[in-house]
């Protein structure tokens, strides 16, 4: 676990653990709930989106329960260490978030609708923590796969900030960055669909109670992407 005796701080590239050139473990082939492959390449016509909103066990369940989501997998993203382990990520020395990759059918569920679920499922104003979970790996982040996703993410953040400010919350600390150059490293097998395997397992995910309006009724919703983003392999 992250050292709780000091304030969490992101490492520099020089301070980060080096990692390894190949994974130290294997990833299951299929989703235990949805039955579809976890890693790509994915079927044509699907889109990929990456979300970080705290402990990835509960976060992943939020998305696999959503109609139109084809598969989900959890991993580490946004840092420097190659092929990291869970223990390494929790040390705070990789720079990664605990992330969820969501592969979805945009004809059934839009990226804007997934953004609404993302914002409402956690508190994006807490910096390097979610509730009692403290560490840089628990920070809120969106890693976008197209200019359209980036535009929608930025617009939704502005819209939700207005909602949170009105409800008495502080400033959103969510980082919005391109997924390109920020490899998604799949996590160990026991983390994948953890709450399906352990129904009574720990879930630290909880929102603020502040609701973002439906994207179909707002200006930010018009920023949602209409094109199809490439569906990369899991280690892209």
Query: What string, H for helix and E for strand, traces the elements in order?
Result: EHEHEHEEEHEEH
Strand order of the largest sheet: 7-6-1-3-2-8
Low-confidence stretches: 226-230
Shape: globular
Walk me through this protein's architecture.
- Its EC number is 1.8.4.11.
- It is an enzyme of class 1 (oxidoreductase).
- Belongs to the MsrA Met sulfoxide reductase family.
- GO terms for molecular function: peptide-methionine (S)-S-oxide reductase activity.
- The active site is at residue 55.
- The protein is α+β, with helices and mostly antiparallel strands.
- Helix content is 20%, strand content 17%.
- It is built from five helices and eight strands.
- The chain has helices at 56-64, 86-90, 111-120, 147-166, 194-197, and strands at residues 47-53, 69-77, 97-104, 129-130, 133-134, 140-144, 175-178, 185-186.
- It has a six-stranded mixed beta sheet, covered by helices on one side. Strands 4-5 form a two-stranded antiparallel ribbon.
- The two termini are 27 Å apart.
Please tag this protein with its features.
alpha+beta; 5 helices; 8 strands; 20% helix; 17% strand; globular; oxidoreductase; EC 1.8.4.11
């Amino acid at each position: 676990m992250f050292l709780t005796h000091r304030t969490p701080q992101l490492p520099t590239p020089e301070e980060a653990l080096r990692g390894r050139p190949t994974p130290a473990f294997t990833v299951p082939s299929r989703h235990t709930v949805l039955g579809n492959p976890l890693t790509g390449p994915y079927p044509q016509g699907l889109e990929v989106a990456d979300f970080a909103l705290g402990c990835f066990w509960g976060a992943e369940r939020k998305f696999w329960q959503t109609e139109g989501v084809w598969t989900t997998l959890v991993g580490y993203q946004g840092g420097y260490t190659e092929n990291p382990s869970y223990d390494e990520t929790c040390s705070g020395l990789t720079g990664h978030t605990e992330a969820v990759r969501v592969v979805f059918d945009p004809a059934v569920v839009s990226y804007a609708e997934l953004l609404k679920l993302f914002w409402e499922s956690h508190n994006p104003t807490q910096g390097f923590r979610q509730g009692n979970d403290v560490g840089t790996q628990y920070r809120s982040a969106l890693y976008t796969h197209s200019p359209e996703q980036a535009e929608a993410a930025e617009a939704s953040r502005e819209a939700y900030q207005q909602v949170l400010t009105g409800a008495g919350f502080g400033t959103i600390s969510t980082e919005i960055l391109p997924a390109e150059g920020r490899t998604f490293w799949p996590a160990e097998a026991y983390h994948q669909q953890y709450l399906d395997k352990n129904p009574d397992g720990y879930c630290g995910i909880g929102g603020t109670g502040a609701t973002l309006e439906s994207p179909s009724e707002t200006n930010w919703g018009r920023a949602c992407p209409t094109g199809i983003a490439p569906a990369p392999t899991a280690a892209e």
